[in-house]
Amino acid sequence: MTHRKLFAIIVLIPFSLLTVYAVMEVGVIGIFDYHRHSPAGWQVFTDLVIALLLMFVWMIPDARARGRNPWPWVIATLLSGSFGPLLYLATESSAAIEPAAAT
User: Fold this and answer.
1) 3-state class of 99 per DSSP?
2) How much of the chain is helix, strand and coil, in % rounded to 5?
3) Residue 101 domain flag
4) Residue 44 forms part of a structural domain
């Protein structure tokens, strides 16, 4: 198991639990609604969007270099935020890593 795969799994588990808790407390709409009431919320939401767009800059070429279709991960990111890149990293195969690491 690679370091980045292990990191993704270690982050994914507590993040999933936190997300389930937040959705149970306020619902999916409530998570987004919380950020629209102040400039601080707008800043946090905008920062998330920028960070996820930067993930696309890395994830799409990385997926292509490893022979993976990047579009399921792009769609997962658009629909679920950080879950897309975390799942991309958590599901990479060790065999696909070697050719991309050599380039």
Assistant:
1) helix
2) 85, 0, 15
3) no
4) yes
* SS3 at position 91: coil
Tens-binned pLDDT, residue by residue, of the chain (103 aa): 889 999 999 999 999 999 999 999 999 898 888 888 889 989 998 999 999 999 999 999 999 999 999 999 999 999 999 999 999 999 988 665 555 554 4
User: Are 70 and 60 within 8 A, CB to CB?
Assistant: yes
74-82: long-range contacts (C-beta < 8 A, 24 or more apart)?
A: 77/52, 81/48, 81/52, 82/15, 82/52
Whether the full predicted model's pTM is greater than 0.85, yes or no, is: no
Q: Is 72 part of a structural domain of the chain?
A: yes
At 6, the amino acid letter reads L
